[in-house]
Automatic annotation (TrEMBL):
<protein>
    <submittedName>
        <fullName>Predicted O-methyltransferase YrrM</fullName>
    </submittedName>
</protein>
<dbReference type="GO" id="GO:0008171">
    <property type="term" value="F:O-methyltransferase activity"/>
</dbReference>
<dbReference type="GO" id="GO:0032259">
    <property type="term" value="P:methylation"/>
</dbReference>
<dbReference type="InterPro" id="IPR002935">
    <property type="entry name" value="SAM_O-MeTrfase"/>
</dbReference>
<dbReference type="InterPro" id="IPR050362">
    <property type="entry name" value="Cation-dep_OMT"/>
</dbReference>
<keyword id="KW-0808">Transferase</keyword>
<keyword id="KW-0949">S-adenosyl-L-methionine</keyword>
<dbReference type="InterPro" id="IPR029063">
    <property type="entry name" value="SAM-dependent_MTases_sf"/>
</dbReference>
<keyword id="KW-0489">Methyltransferase</keyword>
<dbReference type="Pfam" id="PF01596">
    <property type="entry name" value="Methyltransf_3"/>
</dbReference>
<dbReference type="GO" id="GO:0008757">
    <property type="term" value="F:S-adenosylmethionine-dependent methyltransferase activity"/>
</dbReference>
């Protein structure tokens, strides 16, 4: 039987730590450098204002992935491939199917992920999960995935959970990034009406998962939500 990852709730005062130890992030990045290709991707993303996972989130994803040792990963929201490459480097024997809808980011990810695409360790798809034909794609016909990582439209997280949960294997882990949205979800201090819709949907999503799922929050950056699928749970 597959081991179930348990992550307890805790609080990290990241702002206070950074103020007290302003050189700590740079020290840790030097001590645990990322793969060179990932560093190049980060530089490109920063120069072109493309949001990608932070080094802190990448570190958490590597830890979860190495603890759970998934054989198959499904990722929604490739962007240019930083998180995809993070999983690929952490798990050399794992198949990663990554989905990106945006045309420009999909093309960039195809370029950046060539080292893993050529080894057939990563499958990159340009698909819309809202499509009724999503699961009919030949690369998406697997019965289940051991780890699912979601970094897509935040206002769609509840919909995506309902769409994906049945595809998560028992004992598997589903991870949602940016669930706290700059603190707006907690404070409701969102900057404009457009953000209000996403924030209110995220609050609804958070209420749902904490009441109905084995949910754990890692308050890193904008919040990482980890759900563990237990054997007694239904897929509804």
């Amino acid at each position: 039987m597959k081991n179930t990852l348990k992550i307890e709730r805790y609080t990290v005062m990241t702002d206070t730590i950074e103020q007290a130890y302003p050189n700590q992030s740079a020290y840790l990045e030097a001590l645990f450098p990322e793969y060179q290709q990932i560093q190049q991707m980060r530089t490109y993303a920063q120069d072109h204002h493309i949001p990608v996972i932070t080094p802190e989130i990448a570190s958490a994803l590597r830890l979860i992935a190495q603890l759970t040792q998934p054989k198959k990963i499904l990722e929604l929201g490739t962007a240019i491939g930083v998180s995809t490459a993070t999983f690929a480097e952490a798990l050399p024997n794992t198949l990663i199917v990554s989905v990106e809808l945006n045309d420009q980011r999909f093309r960039l990810a195809n370029q950046f992920l060539q080292p893993w695409l050529l080894k057939e360790r990563v499958v990159l798809l340009q698909e819309d999960i809202r499509s009724a034909n999503f699961w009919t794609h030949p690369q998406l016909t697997e019965d289940s995935y051991d780890l699912i990582f979601v970094d897509a439209a935040k206002g769609q997280y509840l919909f995506l959970l309902e769409k994906l949960w049945a595809r998560l294997s028992v004992g598997g882990v589903m991870i949602f990034d940016d669930v706290l949205q700059h603190g707006w979800v907690a404070t409701l201090n969102y900057p404009n009406h457009r953000q209000k819709t996403a924030v209110m949907r995220l609050r609804q999503f958070m209420r749902h998962v904490t009441q109905n799922k084995n949910a754990h929050i890692l308050p890193i950056d904008d919040g990482l939500l980890v759900l563990v699928k237990e054997g007694k749970e239904s897929d509804e």
